[in-house]
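Task 17 of the worksheet. Students: predict the tertiary structure of the chain below and write it out as structure tokens. Keep your answer in the requested format; marks are given for formatting as well as content.
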Amino acid sequence: MAEYDLLVRGGTVIDGTGVDGVVQDVAVKDGLIAELGQISGGAKQEINADGALVTPGFVDVHTHYDGLATWSNRMYPSSHHGVTTAVMGNCGVGFAPVRASDHELLVELMEGVEDIPGTALHEGLPWAWETFPEFLDFLDARSYDMDIATQLPHAALRVYVMGLRGARREAATEEDIATMRKLTEQAMRVGALGFSSSRTLNHRSITGDPTPTLTAAEAELVGIARGIADAGNGVIEMISDFEVIDSEFDRLMAMADAAGAPMSISLGQAGRNPERWRRILGKIDEANARGRLVKGQVAPRAIGILLGLTSTRHPFMACDAFKAIDHLPLGEKVKAMRDSSFKAQVLREAPKDTAYDRIWAVDEAFNYEPGQDASIGARASLTGKSSAELAYEIMLESDGERLLYTPIINYAHGNLDACREMILAENTIMGLGDGGAHVGIICDASFVTFLLTHWGRDRSHGRIALPTLVKAQTHDTAAAVGLHDRGLIKKGLKADLNVIDFENLNLALPRTVYDLPSGAGRLEQPTEGILATIVSGCVTYKNGEPTEALPGRLVRGRRA
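Model answer:
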């Protein structure tokens, strides 16, 4: 009989601790790592990893698969990037707890905040639960291509307890807070990984209303935090505009202190105040020096949006001429736009204030740290065309599927130097990829692959050691949310692995696919070079193609 279930032979193992890789074998039995070293025993299945890297499975702590996980077994796009554990329920939005009368409200909130088509949510969500424990039980009965974990979302909790008063951002009463505390304790005890909330004006429902949690008072936040303390486990994830840094940070720390729990806070370089992130990170460092467990959640590249005819936004969408054809299928739309008189009409109506010097074409030569000379504005100045005309023509390439890219966060100085500082900072973790969300304008689930290729191989200067990058996306992210059974290649831990042809690891161009319920589209960006992804000892993907194995399950919190 074979001694092991799986044997990955001869790869360079980068184990997630941050130390240099070592050529060795990895043996797996019963879903766990059984042995490391030069292994002579046999296995039911072997993978030849000679010349390849072997890493822990990647842990993505910031996704929004809350809807997808209820109707699909595959967590795309993250599945294509070696992610073996995805944490959802971020930014305070989700679908439990919920009363039947509030289904529409939560759909509108998710559609607006996370740009997930309402038609897909209406058709896909089974609504087979009301309470948070019932939601977890529903997920627990399903199988996936990766492990998933979820957090208790503040907006759903607030609306469940307060009804329309909560949706309208009215102040919570003492009774409301007591109920939220009780339900938070219950959620943590049955397996919520933590609690999440949003305090940013950027988060609005599809009707334009701010998120219900925007102005929640400190008493409400602290009351919820005490529910986490009552349960004895859980983490906190927060999004905030930090318009007044000191008072807002103090408010979040009061919550962290009441919970006695780790907290992560979104951190990025804003274009209108490009150095403010340093002050916030300084506050995070000070908090850790005083014994708190606070991390800034950061991205490895700019957070930007994709523009085009298959996206939900582009530079000409407000033009009356374009509105007249916007309902047409892509092919007919492209045909109409190639008409010279139609083109002239759109260009006459085109907004004059579009910043084309901050927009780039996503073509085969594209990278996510583009130079100014490659922008649409710079290219147009060399051709004698207007920037709008050049953008119009580029959008028609590839039969209308060519996309444009404009960075919003982390590109204030035209480079990713700020991202490098954030990646290497002592008190940060990787996150903010939003897998499963913003499906019509963003495909940042590819952050995971970009982190390795750009910072570990392709950047001409300031590269980061590969073991450091692997640790950041495995051990550090897993530990930050209390998942200490994964994130390292170590005997006795969960056998979540990736086998990677690092020299040939590359991101494909993002494209739109139409596989959501109701036929709605989403952006997808697969990779080349991940030879195998392994979850609990089962090979789930080979060379980017799915196997029949679906070993992924709901991961409940530590008490459960």
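Marker's comment: The mean pLDDT is 97. The chain has three domains: 4-56+496-546, 58-301+411-480, 306-409.
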